[in-house]
Amino acid sequence: MDVWASIILSVCAASTPLLIAATGELVVERSGVLNLGVEGMMIMGAVAAFATAQVTGNPYFGAVAAIIVGAAFSLLFAFLTLTLVANQVATGLALTILGLGLSGMIGESFVGHPGVRMEAINIPLLSDIPVIGKIIFGQDLIFYVSIALLAGVAWFLFKTRAGLMLRSVGDSHNSAHALGIQVIKIRYMAILFGGACAGLAGGHLSLVYVPQWVEGMTAGRGWIALALVVFASWRPGRLLIGAYLFGAVTIGQFHAQAVGVPIPAQFLTSLPYLATIVVLVLIARNRRLTMINTPAALGTSFVPDR
Q1: Euclidean distance between CA atoms 240 and 153, whole angstroms
Q2: 196, 71 contact by CB (below 8 A)
Q3: Would the N or C end of the chain have less CB density within 10 A of its end CB?
Q4: How far apart are alpha carbons 225 and 38 in whole angstroms?
Q5: What pTM, to 2 d.p., does this model score?
Q6: Which range among 49-58, 60-69, 239-248, 250-259 shows the weakest confidence by mean pLDDT?
């Protein structure tokens, strides 16, 4: 039972950054903006969290720094695409390249340093319950934040007037503008939220999952988060299933290597990315499923009437 509990905890740790980053990107895409810079914002959040935790000795300060840096990086994307009306796809790709290069330069002096781990929160008595105690009541703070974020986003999008306005902007920004809705303001706020989530996701990697700094440590997780939004058909509930499914695949390949499964290690390492490609291909074959919840104005720039 302890072995299974350990595996489930590992899956939770691997899934948490995917869930947080995908939750933020879901809100961004629901507003009609396609931000492909998730990987860049995540890696910047990771280096900001590690560096701040190293300097202050406090991992919670590191998490706050990751949120701020992720949001600041997304603000650059928002300014270029919303104010200057630059191409969203090209700008997002440039943001990822910039983040990977800048994080490598900033983190160069931190390579090889032991990290400051964010310890799990142990709730007396509840954490001592066999098996489920550690899984439910013995996680780190960012894990609980990820679940709360997803629930809050689901409530916001479908139960509040502001959420309805955001979805209307994503479906038809011209109609929303005609009704007096501030399209640019809503998209700015959505992008900032997505950037903050991506930064926190990166912070989880360098504070909890692998408490150290390694250049390029996000290893494509930002792209998987983007794929998860499509996998979930832009629905928050399905996002949880997708994130933990991909997290399980990631951890599964580590355990397969540990027990000596006679399959090349390189193939096992590529399993999460192969799974991403397979899922996207299967979804693309069902056009009706793809179009049901896809924001109609996704990736389309908006220029208000002068």
Answers
A1: 12
A2: yes
A3: C
A4: 8
A5: 0.93
A6: 250-259
Question: In residues, how long is the chain?
Answer: 306
What is the SS3 assignment for 159?
helix
Task: Tell me what pLDDT residue 29 has.
Answer: 96
Tell me the two tokens of residue 81: 């695409």
Residue 172: CB atoms within 10 A of its CB come to: 17
Using alpha carbons only, give the angle 23, 25, 26 rounded to the nearest 5 degrees. Answer: 65
Radius of gyration of the chain (CA): 19
Show Cβ contacts of residue 12 under 8 Å, excluding neighbours closer than 6 positions.
135, 139, 143, 244, 247
- Tens of pLDDT, residue by residue over 113-157, are 888 999 888 877 777 777 777 788 889 999 999 999 999 999 999
3-class DSSP state of 96:
helix
pLDDT at 1: 54
- Per-residue burial over 237-247, b if 16 or more Cβ lie within 10 Å, else e, is eebbebbbbbb
C-beta contacts of 219-223 below 8 A and 24+ residues apart: 220/39, 220/273, 221/17, 221/18, 221/21, 221/39, 221/42, 222/21, 222/37, 222/38, 222/39, 222/40, 222/41, 222/42, 222/43, 222/96, 222/198, 223/38, 223/39, 223/276
Identify residue 170 by its one-letter amino acid code: G
The model's pLDDT over 14-29, given as tens digits with 9 standing for 90+, comes to 999 999 999 999 999 9
What is the fold, at CATH topology level, of the domain defined by 2-292?
ABC transporter involved in vitamin B12 uptake, BtuC (1.10.3470)
